[in-house]
Amino acid sequence: MEEVNTVSAELGEFLRSRRARLKPEDVGMPSYGSRRVPGLRREELAMVAGMSPTYYTRLEQGQPTQVSDEMLSRLSRALALSSAERQHLFNLARVPGTVTEGSLVPSVRSGIRHLLDAMPRVPAVLLNRQTDVLAWNRSGHALLAGNLPFEAPDEHDARPNVTRMLFLDEQTRALYARWDEEAARAVASLRLAYGRFSRDLKITMLVDELVTQSVEFAALWQSQTVENCISGTKSFCHPWVGPIELAFEALLLPDGSGDRLLTYTAQPNSAAEVAVHQLGSVVKGRG
Fold first, then answer.
1. HSE of 261 in the Cβ direction (CA atoms, 13 Å)?
2. Based on CB atoms within 10 Å of each CB, which residue in 24, 123, 131, 274 is the most buried?
């Protein structure tokens, strides 16, 4: 028997935002001049997805409605969703589970700490799904937050949070040469976690805090952009070693916690590699 999901109000908001970015010609429909509001009409999208307008309207309005995986797949195709957006769509439509306060893993395994320490020339940080720093190695600490005590992640109730710092801390903001790009990426990634762990109170509290305290975060959050940010490049203006461009990889731990290991590497024989090595020397000098 096909699995059936209960729809949340968040799903309705997401559907409206994705519908608004489509034009009739995007789905093979004729366009008859300008429209009062952007995007496809509900009836048009319903026709493309092969469902009744009434049923689709109930989905967008967040009314108590059941939706099958097959119907979600139709919506995904009709809205031309990316793989990350499709994942988000299914996350939002899942039956809500038990409310949780945070990560399923209360402490960092010794093996993870040993792994971090074994990579002295690779800045690395362990983040939970709320983007709190659970642990970092010396170079990861120096790269992202050398102004904070190295032991800061051990303060469970006051751990550094990389998203909060990005929007509310001036030193962190100045660290990124392309802050707008980094901010958009951070919010899109948090939106994906928010959908996957929709009953996590700490994620909800973080979002509520940042929507209230940062106009920029609020605008990005309202856009409903979703992205699975697992790799790419970041440009830093580091106060100790100057400009650095590094590749990053976000490695999701396979335990279901949502924790991920974030690593930064430089191109071999590049100025960035020299800078990272200098960063390690600065850490030793300050240690």
1. 19
2. 123
